[in-house]
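Retro notes - structure team

What went well: the batch runner handled both jobs without manual restarts.
What didn't: labels got mixed up in the shared folder, which is why I'm recording both outputs here explicitly, each with its sequence directly above its tokens.

Job 1
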Amino acid sequence: MFRFLILFFCFTSTVVFCQNAKDIVQNSDIRLRGASSYAELSITIVRPKWQKEMNLKSWSKGNDYSVTLVTSPAKEKGSVFLKRKREAWNYLPAIERTIKLPPSMMTQNWMGTDFTNDDLIKQSSIVIDYTHEIIGSETLEGLDTWKIELFPTEESSVVWGKLIVWIDKIDYMQLKTEFYDEDLEIVNKMVGSEIKQYNGRKLPSKLEFYPLEDEGHKTIIHYDKWNFDVKVPENYFSTQYVSRLK
């Protein structure tokens, strides 16, 4: 009877008592990625005196494989960014060549955004590479969220000295992330909003990334279509096929 009462209590009070911080982060990560995905999205680069918008299609498989095709504007149309584990290639339609990105290019901005090539390649696992602790609760977008602090483990090799992530208590959406450097000074902030349903999953359709040291700079990602657990052909992630993506 005592064991039954404990199980019943956990079932009715799961959100508060029976999930630790790592469970929450893992559930959020699983919902965000899926086994595979296909997305159509736009990226707007905002600067103090100008803006630029790109439209893209993206396919992914787990955390190791992704390929992104630029569909507009005309100047970048047909460009492809391919990630295979910790390596990356760029297909440049103007010269009809696929180039492997060397280490010297990892710190350069990706397609003029506020993300670097390194950000996209060395995406650390927020589940494996960090410790997790719930440090509070806050309301964001009208939703009750856990505020979770993440520190790198001793074994991990990651860019950030600390992350703070806000995850809602019902659908496990990551609504806000703060990025801190090795001196634990906040460097970047990412905020999610405009929540929509994608394949039955609630997710922010709009992500705004702010590099806090560059006033007036931000990158906005808006998902128009986002499908999960779709069949993606294996050859989409090969260097031989990237020039044929449509």
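Job 2
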Amino acid sequence: MKVLSYNYVKPNNDGVVEMLDHSEYMTSQYINHVYEYLHGITLEGKCAFIYAGGVLLTAGEARNTKGDRDYRVNVNDSGVVIKETAAYSMHKWIGQLKGRENICYATINGNTCASSMHCLYEAEQLLNNGFDQVIIVAEEKTSYNTLRIFDEHNIDLKVGEGMAIIHLGKATSPAEEDITQCKTWFEYNRNPFGVTESGYKNVITECDLVKPHGTGTENNETAENDVYGDTPQLRYKETIGHTQGVSGLLEVCMVLDEYLGGRVCCVSSGLGGFYASCIVHKGK
């Protein structure tokens, strides 16, 4: 795939988006920043739009995952991004694009922390099967329920909020390929709140540098260490926190901004047994 353009808003070192005042999500400054970027994109040919987020549960599914404690389940209290809200958001972002009449396929991905990396896999499949351009918009708010689930399962990590957008097209030659070899894997008969070495092994690709999922938790580090071996690593979550559903695409965009060489394997995993990866080419 060829990266036609990309943009992102990453958390600062405290894990919050720098343009967020935390009185509400998506402040006017943030919205204007995203709108301005989208207004500059013109879609051509047969196009697809993919929207990604982390927790895309209905309010009724947002109950506690351990025991019978009475947690808040009203969407306005929990902060859960329900599917209907995601569909509305997707429609809103599409409305900012020139050439939006060329979009004949649109979908939502909610595979938790692997969501936006899964979107890159789907984009590659679409571009290899008749589509000319794909745009992915991923956004993540740190919700009450996400923090609660992490706390219930003793997942100790810093979370962050952010957004990432990427506009992709077909490469006319191998030299133009920016992102290739997108992979996904799903494991059912495993702990849905854990990660496994076998999961990572099924998405790792030979590379010069790896950008691991890299949460820093004991469970994740144990699963990743034997898989990556002595391959040099590029890690972001220690600084910006875990941006959950947007993390895969946001960190790919950060890799695109790095002055690197060779093939970078970017890896994501998500609660529920989801894994995904891609190769970012940085040898040009």
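One thing worth noting from job 2: The two ends are 15 Å apart (CA to CA).
We'll revisit the folder naming next retro.
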